[in-house]
Design a protein that fits this description.
With 307 residues, this protein is α+β, with helices and mostly antiparallel strands. Helices cover 54% and strands 14% of the residues. Strand 3 and strand 4 form a beta hairpin.
C-alpha cells in the first residue's frame, strides 16, 4: 500500500481529532493537509501509521489552538465552533463518545481546557487511544497524561447536563419546533421551551445580531415567531438536519445561499439552548453565503409591509 493510500484510509480519523481539538472545520482541514505533507516527507517506516499520523495531527492542532486562543480573546461577541454537518469518522465501538464530543455544548466545554488537556481528553476519552500513544502524541510522560486526563474529565463532567434526551425524543421535539417557527406559532413554541431557555448567536461582528442573547420563554417564542415566518414568506428555507450531532437546521435564502445555522440543546424534554452561527466566515464551508443584512432587511419589510 502506498503512503497516499494509507493516509486516505486515516484521513477521516485525523480530521475528527483535529476538529475536536480546534472547533474549526477550516483549521482542521489545514491541519490534516499539513499532516500529509509531513508524512510524505518522512523517510523512515513507522511501526503504526495510525499512531504516527494521529500524533502529528495532534501536535499541529495544539500549536494552532495556542495561537487561536489569542484571536478568540479578541473575538467580537460570543464565539462558537464552526458548524459540522457530518462527522466523517465512524467507529461503532465508540459511537456514543464520538457523538457526544462533537456537540456544540461539548466543544464549548472543551474550550475551558488547556490545549494539552484538550488534546489528551480527545485522544483518550473520545477516540480510546492508550496512554502510551497519548503520551507520544503530546510529548509528555504517561503519568503526566493520566493527570491531564483526570483534570480534563473532571472539568467536562462538571459542565455536562445531567438529563439528556434520547434520540427519538430529540427528533420529535425538534420537528415540532421547526414546524412552529415556520408557522409563527407562539403558543406552540411556549410548550417546547425550558423556563430558562436562551437563544445565543455568534456573528463575529459580521452579521446582524440580537444583542448578547434572548432569554426566557416569552422573549424567545415571540422573537422566533416574528422573524422566521416572514423569512419563509420571502422564500427563505429552514432546512432541518443534524448539526454537530444535534437537531438543527441550515437557513437559506431564496437562492439557496446559507444565512446561518442553528442547533438545539434538548434536556429533560425541553429545549434549553438555541445556538445560531451567523458569522459568514464560519459558514463558507457549507456553500455560498448570503448577505445576511439584506435578508434581515427584506424579512423586516415582510413583517411590516406598509412601512
Amino acid at each position: 500500500m502506498t503512503k497516499a493510500e494509507e493516509f486516505e484510509q486515516l484521513r477521516a480519523l485525523l480530521f475528527s481529532i483535529a476538529y475536536r481539538i480546534l472547533g474549526s472545520v477550516s483549521e482542521a482541514e489545514d491541519a490534516v493537509q499539513e499532516t500529509w505533507l509531513r508524512y510524505e516527507a518522512s523517510p523512515a517506516p513507522h511501526t503504526s501509521t495510525k499512531s504516527f499520523l494521529s500524533a502529528v495531527v495532534t501536535r499541529i492542532s495544539i500549536d494552532v489552538l495556542r495561537s487561536a486562543r489569542f484571536r478568540r480573546e479578541e473575538y467580537v461577541g460570543q464565539w462558537f465552533p464552526e458548524p459540522l454537518l457530518t462527522d466523517p469518522y465512524e467507529d461503532p465501538a465508540r459511537s456514543a463518545e464520538l457523538a457526544d464530543s462533537v456537540s456544540m455544548a461539548a466543544l464549548l466545554l472543551l474550550e475551558r481546557l488547556s490545549p494539552l488537556e484538550r488534546a489528551v481528553f480527545v485522544l483518550r476519552e473520545v477516540f480510546g487511544f492508550g496512554f502510551a500513544e497519548v503520551a507520544a502524541a503530546v510529548g509528555r510522560s504517561e503519568a503526566a497524561c493520566r493527570q491531564l486526563a483526570v483534570r480534563a474529565r473532571r472539568h467536562m463532567d462538571a459542565g455536562r447536563a445531567r438529563f439528556a434526551a434520547d434520540r427519538r425524543e430529540r427528533e420529535e421535539l425538534a420537528d415540532r419546533f421547526f414546524q412552529a417557527i415556520r408557522e409563527g406559532d407562539v403558543d406552540g413554541l411556549r410548550t417546547l421551551f425550558a423556563a430558562d431557555v436562551q437563544m445565543i448567536a455568534d456573528s463575529g461582528g459580521k452579521a446582524p445580531l440580537w444583542g448578547k442573547g434572548i432569554f426566557g420563554v416569552e422573549n424567545v417564542s415571540r422573537l422566533l415567531a416574528a422573524t422566521i415566518a416572514p423569512f419563509v414568506r420571502i422564500g427563505g428555507v429552514v432546512e432541518a438536519q443534524e448539526v454537530n450531532g444535534q437537531p438543527g437546521a441550515i437557513f437559506r435564502d431564496r437562492d439557496g445561499r446559507v444565512v446561518n445555522t442553528l442547533t438545539l440543546d434538548i434536556l429533560d424534554g425541553r429545549i434549553q439552548t438555541i445556538r445560531a452561527v451567523l458569522n459568514p466566515d464560519k459558514l463558507a464551508h457549507l456553500g455560498p453565503v448570503a448577505d445576511a443584512w439584506s435578508v434581515v432587511r427584506e424579512t423586516n419589510q415582510a413583517r411590516h409591509p406598509s412601512d
